[in-house]
Amino acid sequence: MADDDTPPPERGSVVVPVESTSTLRTTVTHLIESAAAGEFDSIHFVVLASWRRDDPETAARNADAERLLDRVSAWAAADLDDAEVEGVDIVTAIVGADEYLFGPGDYAREIVTYADDHGIHSVVLDPEYTPVGNTTLLQPLAFELSNTDLVVREAPVSRPTRRERLRKEATGKRFAALFGASFAFYLLLGDPLYWFDWLTGVASAAIVAITLSRVSIDTEPSFPRTPMRILRGLVYVPVLLFEILKSNLVVARVILDPRLPIDPTLNRVRVLVGSGLPLMTLANSITLTPGTLTVRARDGDLYVQSLIPWARDGLFDGSLERWTRFIYYGREAARLPTPRERDDVAVFQGPDATEELPLARADGGDESDRRHTDTGAARDAPAGSDAPAGSDADETTEVTDE
């Protein structure tokens, strides 16, 4: 028979990354029920910042995150009162704003760091958790966390039905933006004066917007940010066409040279543009420019195959990176050191090689296996910049524009 003086089993703490989802409320209820059952004595709700402190509209995004955390705290307090549970601490925090988080590996690293700092050994994930608006992120995030010492589980709550999901996808600014863009593109390819093209265009644009609006667009369109990005993108189009023409001429001259003076190498460039659309824009711009081909994007690193040294030098000089930052973050954000000046570059082949070819590196491996070896790399954007920047896991060195 158990001794009455035997202390109750020690309860632990749990960290819960949160975002506004249809299952967040029931996830909070599940956590309070677990706390009432004696599983937890402290619940840490955290918002993983998909922005950086120097981003445009950071104050507004921080305010939104604070409101979300306040709402979650109110739900938890109400559930604790209903369950008549005492001695459970509710903690809220915004983490990861000091550096830009590019992918599941970076998000998992921030969670692990927070857990280590607070002596936490468990993570509970909301099944609908999508911190950057990408519906495919939860599974890789859970996989990344499973490779850590944390105990990871998904909250056993009911997900919304397909009808509820469809209604959510077919509303909002993202739907309207993608519908308008798809419909305009459809009419551009067809006949805007033909009634049948209008009919089929509306149907096609609606299908695209319903199925892809939350995948294709990471953040809600807003005024004046979105119109300004569109205008700056229109300015960038002739610049990109000029770069394509110039590269075509240089590569054509090399190909027509009987000596065929090519020097193909695989290179790595850590770019300071942020994830999502900015990273996609830069990667595709590099690929469209003859002489370079983006073969992989891993977190903040682009792996680019270059055909000739001239193309590699242009990549390291960062002209396209500057223009990408200009499109998404404005003129001030374009004033930053080049990748070469930041020492954010590497060559994997040839006599100029600075790192070993990463053939054995694989996704989901040990962090030390996939982090580049140069230790003095700059990670932060220039002081006063409006743009996000990546950060090394161990060291962050601020770069200022002289």
Helix content bin:
40-55%
Taken as a percent bin, the fraction of beta residues is 5-15%
CATH architecture of the largest domain: 3-Layer(aba) Sandwich
The biggest sheet amounts to:
5 strands, parallel
Order of helices and strands, N to C?
EHEHEHEHEHHHHEHEEHHHEH
Distance between the termini: 75 Å
Q: How many distinct beta strands? A: 9
CATH H-tier superfamily of the largest domain: HUPs
Folded structure, characterized:
The protein is of the alpha/beta class and about 400 residues long. The protein has three domains: about 10-155, 3-Layer(aba) Sandwich (Rossmann fold), CATH 3.40.50; about 175-215, no CATH class; about 225-360, no CATH class. Helices cover about 45% and strands about 15% of the residues. It is built from 13 helices and nine strands. The chain has helices at about 25-35, 60-85, 105-115, 140-145, 160-170, 175-190, 195-215, 225-255, 275-290, 310-315, 320-330, 340, 365-370, and strands at about 10-15, 40-50, 90-95, 120-125, 150-155, 265-270, 290-300, 300-305, 345. The strands form two sheets. A five-stranded parallel β-sheet has the order 3-2-1-4-5, sandwiched between helices. A four-stranded antiparallel β-sheet has the order 7-8-6-9. The longest helix has about 30 residues, at about 225-255. Residues about 135-140 and about 360-400 have low confidence and may be disordered.
